[in-house]
Structures are given as structure tokens and as C-alpha cells.
Amino acid sequence: MARARTSIILSAALLAFALFATPTPAAEQLTGSSAPDSTYGEGGTKETFLDAANALRGEVWRDKTGMIREQHELDGSGEQFWGFFIGEGTAAYNWGGAIAIKPIGGPAAAWTMTIYGTGTVTIKEYGFLTKAELDTEFAHWHDQMRGWVNGFIRPQQG
Prior knowledge:
The chain has helices at about 1-20, 130-155; strands at about 30-35, 45-50, 55-60, 70-75, 80-85, 95-105, 110-115, 120-130. By secondary structure, the chain is α+β, with helices and mostly antiparallel strands. The chain has an 8-stranded antiparallel sheet with strand order 1-2-3-4-5-6-7-8, sandwiched between helices. The termini are far apart.
């Protein structure tokens, strides 16, 4: 049951990535800008996408060959999705991991966070995180995911 749910979530996430790359209706048009970024090696770029109100809606990190290595999407409700890609970054087996963050409704400001590994493997699930806990755990897992991707695209010698 959990594997099926995870598979559905990841399939939906991949679909969201595909939709993110296609033009949106005029009312939701995003503007983008690109800047040099060495997160995934020298010669890489970081693209930032803003909505009409200049709110951040997404970010894409590319290596020097133009391959997407990391993609961040967020919506107005506070949901965030971070995807990390290995290999050529285009196939399901190149999915290196993901982080999904969702706010929990109600009077308590809390979030859930799920960490996914390659394919449909759920590594860790968190519930009812405070903002401070979310920030701490996210920083740890974000660094881990970036390290894994860099390890695949720039293997250590020796």
C-alpha cells in the first residue's frame, strides 16, 4: 500500500515537472531569470521563476552541459517539492531523490516532510514539524541530496 502511494506521488511529481516546463496560461505566466551557479560544478546555472506578484514559484539548477540536476517548485499554499537528478536527468531511473514539504492546516503552524530516494523508496517521513524543526531537517536532507547528485556526476578519484 505504501509503495503504491509513493509510486503515485512520484509519478505525479514527474508530471508536475513536465507541466512546469511547459507554458502556463496567461493568468499564471511566470517570468524567469538565469545566473551563473557552481552548485553542480563550474559553468552551471540557476534559473529562478517568479509569478506576476514577484513571488518565487520555482528554481532550476543545471550543470555545465545544461542537464537539470535540481528543481524546486512551490505554490501559494506553501507546498514545496525539491527534485534531484543523476545520470542524464531525463529518465525515471535518473531520479536521484526528492523532498516534499506540505503545511498542515489548522491553528498550529506545522509541516510534514517526506524524503524519497531513487525510484519510489521512502527514506524518511516527518509529521507535525515546527518551523525550526523543518528548517533544521530540511537543511540536513538538502545537503545530503546535493552531495549524492554531485557524487554521481563527479565521482571521487581513488
